[in-house]
Amino acid sequence: MNLDQKIGQLIVTGFPGSKPDQAFMDLVKKDKVGNVIFFSYNIKSRQQAACLCRELQGCIREETGVLPFITVDEEGGVVSRLPDDAAVLPSAMAQGRAGKLSSIYEGSKIVGEELKALGINFNLAPVLDINSNPRNPVIGVRSFGENAGLVSRCAAQAVRGFLDAGIMCSGKHFPGHGDTDVDSHLGLPCIDKSREELEQEELLPFCHAISLGIPAITIAHTLLPAYETEKIPCTMSKKIITGLLREKLKFNGLVITDCMEMDAIKKFYGTPAGAVEALRAGADLVFISHTARTVHESIEEIKRAVGDGRIAMSRIDEAVQRILKYKAVYAAEMLTDIKADPQNNLSLAKTAAQKKFMDDFYRECIYIHKPEGAEKIEAGPAPLWIGPYPARTSLAENEKDHAFSFSSYLKNKFGGDSFFISLDPSPEEISMALKKTKNCSSIAVGTINAHMNAGQAELVRELAKTGKPMAAAALRNPYDLQGIPESIFQAALYEYSERALKEFSELIFTGPCGPSSCSSGLSSRSSF
Question: Rounded CA gap, 236 and 424, in Å?
Fold first, then answer.
């Protein structure tokens, strides 16, 4: 390989639609970029995704001589790129609450098989962060839980499932993004803990995953003063990547960066400079996920850094050799499929059975509280459904479609009236919602991170005072349910989705348009 081809192997990027645009193809043809990341806007259906993967495998191999890593963030729940006709895992926190390790393994294996059938060979999951800060704006339900042991046990089954399905996976976000109150998409978080504290908590899930042979680890854009005294994020720190991860923790797999276009890097250091420093620090794959011009500028800066000695050629060769080693295992299997009919691959994924497994698994994951002696709420002739539109509370999540909502879904199912609230309702909004309750027969309110939005929390408290039959559904973090009276029906759903609202409606409500009984077998649970 010449230098252009080698640098191209180190870069992962994407494009803004369901087909590669000219800017992306120029990166492949001129800059020899050798890897792709998919987002939800790239994937419209299983059939379309399979054809797209086949096209990318062919054109990238033709231009670079090597099959690509085709990567995706398929964590499940609130971070899922798969289309509606695919099987999707529950959010990690929901999986951790259910605690069924065998189901986590089987569900992860199903996702791996689904991705592989489409032609995607690298899942950017699981999340190994411990959600020790309930006010974390970016991790939350993406984490398996709030303690190191639970996260380690659950993540181990996810890793095993992905690998047994024959795809790459990456634990993220090293050395831990759980105890922050800043989203690295928007700012530069700092984990200000001692080495002893980090080794007893944040680092444990990563150590466990390394011992199990996880093939890749994603580095977080966080400051870690205990190991890096300069104001250098972990992604750009040799002390973190080489010193801590490689030398101290003995990790020999692929080190990959979180997207270098996130503000934690772009705003404070610049993406091209950040890409150079990440490679110097010991990263192998650099993600520049969105902007073709930024990708090209970063590649040019990497070339200059090799030319002036800032990056040793041996460092480039080391990264390329490691990438090719894993591609020989996980991308080479796709080689025989490039000329095949994608439909043949799709037939390998038993989607109906897989979707049923995921629906059953999700049903086991959700938390339901029923007041003592109560089974369901009779919706009555005039139910009131109150909730926010789906909201993208972190840039890690997909764009949201307001055509689907908590209030409209339940109104369509049971009738009555709907009322939409903002993420942080004003006193005027709360007053308007309360006026709506005067003639209603029952109330359901959906929340998104009410524990961080005072207006939502105040609305739920005021609604509870009406004395009307009422249910509250936490559509994201379960912390929203803390402090709600025991006399209120409660549901921690962990995601804002059609399957979540289906389960909520069937488990909590009965009425002329709804089911007369619940067949799920769920009973009241005391904790989430």
Answer: 36
